[in-house]
Structure formats: structure tokens, C-alpha cells
Design a protein that fits this description.
The complex is a heterodimer of chains A (80) and B (562).
Chain A lengths: L8 H20 L18 H24 E3 L7
Chain B lengths: L7 H14 L2 H21 L4 E7 L2 E7 L2 H20 L8 H16 L4 H20 L4 H32 L12 H14 L6 H6 L7 H5 L2 H14 L3 H20 L3 H22 L2 H32 L15 H14 L6 H15 L3 H27 L13 H19 L1 H6 L12 H20 L9 E3 L3 H45 L11 H21 L1
Antiparallel strand pairs in B: 1-2
Helix pairs in contact in B: 1-2, 1-4, 2-3, 3-4, 3-10, 3-13, 3-17, 4-5, 4-10, 5-6, 6-7, 7-10, 10-12, 10-13, 11-12, 11-16, 12-13, 12-15, 12-16, 13-14, 13-15, 13-17, 14-16, 14-17, 15-16, 15-17, 16-19
The chains are: A mainly alpha (80), B mainly alpha (562).
């Protein structure tokens, strides 16, 4: 099978750069956007950006933490 | 009553018998025509009470149409059509008929105007869905189906107790909004919530659904939980408790999906998450929130089915279900990858997809009602949906690493089903007006404002960043996560086993004591009869005379005082 363009690390790097550029653009564009916020916290600069990131980080941390208690090998229940 | 012949649910459920008998091309035609007919009927029937009757001296309304029931009937019909198309190559001859019985019963519930009819179709759904699980044919599926069935029978018992109590209290069985004042109404709520996958019994969703066949899970994902959403919307709109139950489900789904390794179990937990959004909307209870919950049920059925079709195609082609064994499939399965990504974008509410035009109504309604905490939790959850379903599913299945697997895309019928549902995801996202026309209330909502598109993109982009930055923490392990089902799969079993052992020990102990007591008593009796024992002793005549005197004296006293 011929190799896919995504198999080339150079292309993956390009994708990453494009992604970071989009992220930057999405933050910078907030200066010119009229977001008509409803709650005070929405007025904080780039609220959806940092809140989205933070919320995900917290959820992953919470999942990790619960995983310590809840995770079992996937044959735990066996053939009951 | 003649309208019952045109009941879309009965048409669909009735076609199951026909499909079970047919072979070859005729079967294919029947599988496609039956749900199409149900959709057309759902669209065309007038909005009115179409059938009434008397059953057990109660007035029942087996068939009633209004905007809300029509919306659900249409999406259930669509789901049966897409699922039937996807399952055309399913070798099991029972699965599609069982699924059509299941889908038809779900339509039966949403068209029911009274609680007795609701209950009958409710139980038929449990039977249909259990048959879908059985038709998978594996031992794991059979065991899971028994657990699944027990939970649903429990839900059915709660519902039935509630309905009989309500009929006795209120003197009517009409299915309208409940005041939630009597125990009977609470029981009905509990019965509905069991099917919605609400806590504390959410575990059945993640336990049972991933055990069905590659096509069975597609059917299972749609009907049970969304029928419960409909029932909650009809009966308990605006119940504050539902806001918190819904939010719990939202985060339960995210956390468990993040921990999960089985690709279809990730999507099953995601069902609980999505239904959580709907339940929250129902709890908020404003017209916009209810429209949002209804619209979200509609769009969710389509994109979740699409995601499960993509997962089903991978399972069909590779037989592998664990994310840790998958990866790199985009090379050889481009169609499945694309359709999976469209489904993932739709569930994440990416602009121009169906999720974007439905989910935001619920958070918008929370904001309008001034529920700041609910609103901010919903925003966090939106980021979490992208995390656990929007990126995690496609990333671990189609990209991640090269697993060395090179399966090809699935056959035409399965691809066609994926194309159809991917098209719907995009079409609803681009032309939301068509969906909005079907909604039960006339609350105006415009999803495509510059601010909404921009903030949503910002949220999703940075959630995506969080995923890739924290990827090491998300590395898949070959594990499952314990849930409340542990209580009845492990704890209760252990307690019962211990109890049995304790009983056997106790019984043996009691028997030993009994033998000891008998032996002693026997020895005592024998001793009395042997020389020197009480019955075999010689006593003096004087002693006997004294006893005789005492007895006569006693007799005299008795005689005197009575």
C-alpha cells in the first residue's frame, strides 16, 4: 500500500502549525467581534478559549483520578 | 378506529412478521418500504385524536398526534430506515424484524394518548430490544441481554405501579402533564428515568449496547432512551429535579467515555451524555428549552447512529472493538473515516452540522432563564463532548498509530446508510428551518449569529488543543470502569454466596445441637427407667402418706375458696 500523505512527519508538522494559527486567529479576532455577553464571566477576554481548555483539563484530571478507583482489567467480570 | 390501520408504529411492527418470512430481494424491498411508509404516515396523518376506546372501564386513546409526537414518530421511522439499510447484509434473520418491532413500539409510545397504551408499547420495546441483543448470538450478548432485560422489567414494574396508582387517584389514564404530587406520579417518573439511562441505573446503557452485533447497536442507540425523553417531555416538563439529573448524566457520560477503551462503549456512554442535555432542557422547561430538547433528540439519533455505523463498519471489517488494538484505519477506510468524522463534528455541535442548531437551544434557554450555574456547566460539557466523542472516537479508531490493520470500506448497503445519515447531519446543520418547522413550540431561535459561531469555534478549537496537549493522560488501557452495575454483578452475588454459605454452616450447627439435645434427653429418660431412676425407685410408705395428706389438704382448700 502506498504511503499516505499523513504518514510524512513534515505534513503532520504543517497541520500542527495550521492548527496553532487557527487558535491564534480565534483569539485575536475577539478584538473585532461583538459577542453581546449575557453573564459577567463572558466579558473576560477569550472566555470560551481558556474556559474550554480548562474545562477539558479538569474533566481529564477527574477521569484520571476516578480511573484509579474504578478501572479494572477488561476481563474483570469474566464469563459470568 | 380505522385510523389504527394507518398507525405508523403498527405498520412498522407488523412488517416485522412479514420480513421474518421473506427471503432475498423481496425481503430487501420490505425492509426499505416499511419504515418509509411509517415516515410518510407520520408526516401526513392529521394532528388529532385518531383512535379512542374503552379498556378495563378506562377510556384509552391508542392513537393521538400532535407536533411533539409527530416529530418523534418521524425520527424513529427515519432511524428504522437507516438502520434497516445498514443491516441489509446482517446474516441474522431475527435482528431486523426484532428491530422493527422495537422501532414500531417506540412509535406506539409516542402516539399513545393514555398510559395503558404507553405501558403496553413500553414493554414491547423491552422485548424487541432484547431480541436485537440476542440475535447477536454471542454468549456475552446473551448474558448482557439478561441484565438489560431485568433492569427494564424493573423499570416496567415501577411504571406499572405508578400507572395503576395514578388511575386510582386521578380516575383517568390520559397521558398529560403530571403535577408530581402523589407517590404514583413519582413512580411513573422513576419508570421513565430508568429507560432514560438516569442515575443510579445508568450502567445498563454501557453494559448492554456494545454487546449487540455490528448493526444491532445502531438500532439500540436510538429508541429506548429517546422514547423516555419524549415521555419525560410530555409528563414532566419544567421539573427542577430533572435539571440536576440531566447535568449528572452529562458529566457521567463524559467521564466514563474518557476512561473507556471499547469503541462502541465510548459511544454508549456518550448516549447517556447526550440524553443528559435533553433531560436538562426538559427540566428547564421553557418553550425554547423544550424545543431544544426535542430538536436535540432528533439530531442526536441521526449522528449517534452515524457514529455507530462507522464503528459497526470497523467491527464488521476487522472484528476488533478495542481502541488499543485499532488505529490508522483512515488509509484503507476513507469513506468510513469521513462519515465518522462528520458524525463526530455533529455531536460536537460544530457549525454547519446538526448538533450546532439543536444543542445551543438548551444552553440558550438556560441563559435566558438566568440559570448561570446550569449554563456554565453546559458550556463546559459542550467542550467535554468534543473531547470524549468528537475527537477521541475518530482519533483512536482511525488515526492514532498504525495498527497494521488494512480493512476496506464496507459493502454498498452499509456505505449507503452512512451517506444518508451523513447527508442528514449536514443538511439539518445548513438548513435548520426544515427541522425547526417540526418543533412542538413556536419559540423563535436563530443559531447562525456571528457571536454564536465564533464562540463555539473558540470553545471547540481549544478543547481540541486540550485533547492533544493532554493526550498522554488519555492513553488507552485494556480496562473497563466499575459502575453501579458492580453492585448487582459482584456485591449482591457475593452477598448471596456468603449468605448461602452462612446458611449452610448455620444449618449444620443447628443439626449438631439438635442431635446433642436429643441424645441427652434420651439418656435422661432411659436413666429414669433404669434401676435407681425416678420411675424405678422404692419409696417409703410414710413419705407416700405425707404426700397424700398434702394433696387432700390442697383439695380442701380449693373447695373452701371456690
Amino acid at each position: 500500500m502506498k504511503s499516505h500523505w499523513l504518514d510524512d512527519p513534515a505534513n503532520v508538522r504543517k497541520l500542527w502549525r495550521a492548527f496553532v494559527a487557527v487558535l491564534g486567529l480565534l483569539v485575536v479576532a475577539e478584538f473585532v467581534m461583538d459577542l453581546h455577553p449575557r453573564f459577567g464571566i463572558e466579558r473576560v477576554f477569550a472566555f470560551y478559549a481558556w474556559f474550554g481548555f480548562l474545562a477539558c483539563a479538569v474533566m481529564i484530571a477527574l477521569a484520571k483520578l476516578l480511573g484509579v478507583v474504578l478501572k479494572r482489567p477488561d476481563d474483570y467480570y469474566g464469563d459470568e | 378506529m380505522a385510523w389504527l390501520l394507518m398507525h405508523p408504529g403498527l405498520v412498522l411492527a407488523g412488517s416485522a412478521v412479514l420480513i421474518a418470512c421473506l427471503r432475498g430481494r423481496l425481503r430487501t424491498v420490505a425492509i426499505l418500504v416499511a419504515p418509509s411508509t411509517a415516515i410518510l404516515l407520520s408526516l401526513q396523518l392529521p394532528a388529532a385524536v385518531l383512535a379512542e376506546g374503552v379498556f378495563l372501564e378506562r377510556e384509552i386513546v391508542p392513537m393521538r398526534l400532535d407536533a411533539l409526537s409527530r416529530l418523534f414518530a418521524i425520527i424513529f421511522g427515519l432511524m428504522a430506515l437507516g438502520g434497516g439499510l445498514f443491516a441489509l447484509r446482517q446474516p441474522s434473520r431475527i435482528e431486523v424484524p426484532a428491530a422493527y418491532l422495537y422501532a414500531g413500539s417506540a412509535i406506539g409510545v409516542v402516539l399513545a394518548g393514555d398510559l395503558i397504551t404507553v405501558f403496553v408499547f413500553w414493554e414491547l420495546m423491552a422485548i424487541g430490544s432484547t431480541l436485537v441483543l440476542w440475535s447477536s448470538g454471542t454468549r456475552a450478548a446473551y448474558r448482557a441481554s439478561l441484565r438489560y432485560l431485568k433492569i427494564h422489567l424493573l423499570g416496567g414494574v415501577l411504571l406499572f405501579a405508578g400507572i395503576t396508582g395514578y388511575a386510582a387517584d386521578a380516575g383517568t389514564v390520559r397521558f398529560e402533564s403530571f403535577a408530581l404530587e402523589s407517590p404514583a406520579e413519582w413512580l411513573i417518573l422513576a419508570g421513565f428515568l430508568v429507560n432514560a439511562g438516569a442515575p443510579p441505573l445508568s450502567a445498563w446503557v454501557g453494559d448492554a449496547y456494545p454487546e449487540a452485533s455490528w448493526s444491532g447497536t445502531v438500532f439500540l442507540s436510538a429508541f429506548t432512551t429517546k422514547t423516555a425523553v419524549y415521555a419525560l417531555m410530555r409528563g414532566f416538563a419544567g421539573t427542577d429535579l430533572l435539571v440536576w439529573i440531566g447535568l449528572f448524566m452529562v458529566f457521567y457520560g463524559i467521564i466514563y467515555a474518557l476512561l473507556e477503551n471499547d469503541m462502541r462503549r465510548i459511544l454508549a456512554y456518550s448516549i447517556v451524555n447526550q440524553v443528559g442535555f435533553m433531560v436538562t432542557g426538559i427540566g428547564i422547561g421553557t418553550e425554547l428549552a423544550l424545543n431544544g430538547a426535542a430538536a436535540h433528540a432528533f439530531t442526536h439519533i441521526v449522528y449517534k447512529a452515524l457514529l455507530l455505523m462507522a464503528a459497526g463498519s470497523v467491527l464488521y471489517a476487522t472484528g476488533v472493538r478495542r481502541c488499543s488494538d485499532l488505529g490508522g484505519l483512515f488509509r484503507s477506510m476513507p469513506v468510513t473515516t469521513c462519515c465518522g468524522i462528520i458524525g463526530a463534528l455533529a455531536i460536537s455541535a460544530f457549525p454547519l452540522t446538526s448538533g450546532f442548531v439543536s444543542k445551543s437551544m438548551i444552553s440558550e434557554a438556560a441563559a435566558d432563564s438566568g440559570l448561570a450555574v446550569v449554563w456554565i456547566l453546559l458550556v463546559a460539557a459542550s467542550a467535554g463532548v468534543f473531547l470524549h466523542a468528537g475527537i477521541k472516537f475518530p482519533w483512536f479508531v482511525f488515526f492514532q498509530k498504525d495498527s497494521g490493520l488494512r480493512p476496506s470500506d464496507p459493502p454498498t448497503s452499509m456505505r449507503a446508510a452512512m451517506y444518508l445519515f451523513a447527508f442528514l447531519c449536514l443538511a439539518i446543520g445548513i438548513f435548520p428551518a426544515a427541522l425547526y418547522r417540526l418543533l412542538p413550540y413556536s419559540a423563535a431561535y436563530e443559531p447562525y449569529t456571528a457571536a454564536h459561531v465564533f464562540t463555539q469555534l473558540q470553545l471547540l478549537a481549544f478543547a481540541g488543543l486540550a485533547f492533544f496537549v493532554l493526550l498522554p493522560a488519555l492513553k488507552r488501557t485494556r480496562t473497563i470502569s466499575l459502575d453501579t452495575d458492580w453492585l448487582y454483578r459482584r456485591l449482591l452475588v457475593a452477598v448471596a454466596a456468603r449468605g448461602h454459605a452462612a446458611f449452610r454452616y448455620g444449618a449444620a450447627y443447628a443439626r449438631a445441637i439438635q442431635q446433642q439435645v436429643c441424645r441427652r434427653a434420651e439418656a435422661f429418660v432411659l436413666r429414669q427407667r433404669s434401676p435407681g431412676g425416678a420411675l424405678n425407685r422404692s419409696e417409703s410408705t410414710a413419705g407416700m402418706g405425707v404426700w397424700m395428706m398434702l394433696m387432700l389438704l390442697g383439695h380442701l382448700m380449693l373447695y373452701l375458696f371456690t
